[in-house]
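Mods, move this if it's the wrong board.
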Amino acid sequence: MRSNLFRQRLDVFTMWSTAVRTVSTRLSEDLYRKYRQFYLVTDIRQMVIGLAVIGLVTAVFYYSDYLLFGFSGLFYLLLALRLILVAATATVIVLLLKAVTRPAAFDLVVLAYGICVVCICIYIGWTRPGSYVQYVALDVAIVAAIYLFFTCRRLIKTALALLLTVGDLIIIGLLKDPVGIVVWNVTLISFLLANVIGLLFALRIEAFRRRRFLDILDEENMRNELVRMASIDELTGIWNRRKFLDLAENEAERYTRYQRPYSLMMIDLDFFKTVNDRFGHLSGDTALRQFAEIVRGQIRGMDIFGRLGGEEFGIVLPETGIQEALALGERICKTLYSTDIKISDGRSVRITSSIGLAEACPAYKTLDDVISAADTALYRAKEKGRNCMEVATGEAAQAQLDM
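Not the wrong board. Structure tokens:
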């Protein structure tokens, strides 16, 4: 017997400790807003079910008013209140389904409706005859329903449930005929259990929902990270070859459809193999990262910068003609030439680059055409002695097309 009592006390302690852990585990404000927005549609659906139940029960109990008061003025007043509550329920359901798109608005609608329900329930209890306290059973069920179906902030649902509880207890204790100690104890314990069990159940549900939300968020972050890793060059942090070509193809399609201009720049670091041979590949990797930072400091946010392999890079310049692209290429060459690249042990090197530049035009319609033209210009820059830029012109290719 003692062991069973110990187990019961242990179960109660476990329930309360779980509730305390749930309350103490809080999401950040920004994460909490995302959590509420994530569950908003589900919360609205559950709230609509609860509202429909409350509206149906409210309408049905008009018959008890008739049995108590007959066709009196008080009966018609209570009937009007019940019809108002039913109309308010229908209005709130429509608002929740069509107009509410933010958790803050959802909480406000639920709070206003909840205050209306609680006040009407308290008033109905006050109108009952002094010796009639059986209506409390319905209010206890409403308290439990608030915890179960009101999917708003925990503070709101707790406040509404306690408001109804305290209101009913005040009416029974002060305004009704004296009731026996047994009836009073049963009433008090019923409300206490409805609040405690309802709150614990609400806390458990909320804890489960938060864990599920965080799990989904972790999975989404993991997927995004995998996508990022599949698109980013691990060494330099810019686009890798595949992602660069995908984004460049989008610009080529915009040119084909809407004749929106773009230019493409191929960059190759001059004699970069000597850096690896003299200082080691780790120093070479450091130099590549610093080169990527230099270029990122020169280009726009809309420009597409990627590593095509080794020490070869590409830049797609949307909405950019050949003259603007030429100015950018010259800035990159000058900035790189005048910058000391820190490698290791306080040492630094100077590196240069050769650049080939091409603009999409009738002679270079497809992305492959533009890349090929820029690549050819790049090799001309290398043949001219490197540390310079060559521009591909479509005149020769256009002449061949005209022939």
